[in-house]
Amino acid sequence: MKIDILTLFPGLFDSPFSESIIGKAQQRGLLKVQTHFLRDWAEGKHKITDDTPYGGGDGMVMKPEPIGRALDDLRVSSSGSPVLLMTPQGKQFRQEDAERLAGHDGLIFVCGRYEGFDERVRYLVDEEFSIGDYVLTGGEPAAMVMIDAIGRLLPGVLGCDTSAAGDSFSDGLLEYPQYTRPEDFRGWPVPDVLRSGNHAAIARWRRQEQLRRTYQRRPELLEAADLDAEDRRMLEFIRQEAGEEE
Ligand code: 6GU
């Protein structure tokens, strides 16, 4: 996959994408992330990319022409790649978006700083994304989050192709608790069942703990989760247990 990023701060992306799993994926040619400096498409001696808002008010607004010219070029050099605008007003990025976007050969991310974009920038893009209900200083960290979530889904990026399938959210539930050595850490033991060698019992325990954890921490996820009859039976048991404690 080819990822283009349009930004006023290309240097921000150097280390996040040169290390760890995404860095390795780039070295192996599974993914190529390329930043583009928005000021290269700005005009005049000062190469201005923002201006004061019509109607007055605080802050600056990103001008539409540099972004327009940059996207004219990028839509040619990376033809077919959807253009994604990073903005707190966008739709919230979810795992299902990561899965869908991972199916494209390329993606173009547009990051802005300051108080926002001229409204007409919206007419130039395919989708608008936010990563959550909090305010960042710019779209760059949000693009990094999205690229990380998308990049790890690409074939061959994770060590084994099944590890993404077992993720929290991929089946709509949180993950079960994991343990490694030592058997006893500060008086907290590893659950006996995990050392029993009984694989059916371990699978049952893990599913039950997945349901319990989701019920305790993110009950709203259970509404949309894909549950079979056995899951529902376990969930009923978990609910009763919780009710008895109250
Ligand atoms: Cl995409 N941009 C900014 N500036 N803040 C955000 C965001 C994006 N997503 C969440 N907060």
What report would you give on this structure?
This protein is an alpha/beta fold. The strands form 3 sheets. It has a 5-stranded parallel beta sheet with strand order 2-1-6-5-7. 24% of the residues are buried. It contains 7 helices and 9 strands. The longest helix has 19 residues, at 199-217. 6-chloroguanine is lined by residues 86-88, 129-132, 134-136, 138-139, 142.
Distance between the termini: 51 Å
Main β-sheet description: 5 strands, parallel
**Structural class given helices, strands, pairing?**
alpha/beta
Overall spatial form: elongated
Our Rg estimate from Cα atoms comes to: 23 Å
- In what range is the share of β-strand residues? 15-25%
Order of helices and strands: EHEEEHEHEEHEEHHH
Bound molecules: 6-chloroguanine
What share of the residues lie within helices? 25-40%
Give the low-pLDDT segments: none
Question: How many E-type strands?
Answer: 9
Average pLDDT confidence is: 95
The number of helices is 7
The strands making up the biggest β-sheet line up spatially as: 2-1-6-5-7
What structural keywords apply?
16% strand; 7 helices; 9 strands; alpha/beta; binds 6-chloroguanine; 246 residues; 33% helix
Short recap of the structure:
With 246 residues, the chain is an alpha/beta fold. The protein is built from 7 helices and 9 strands; from the N terminus they run βαβββαβαββαββααα. Helices cover 33% and strands 16% of the residues.
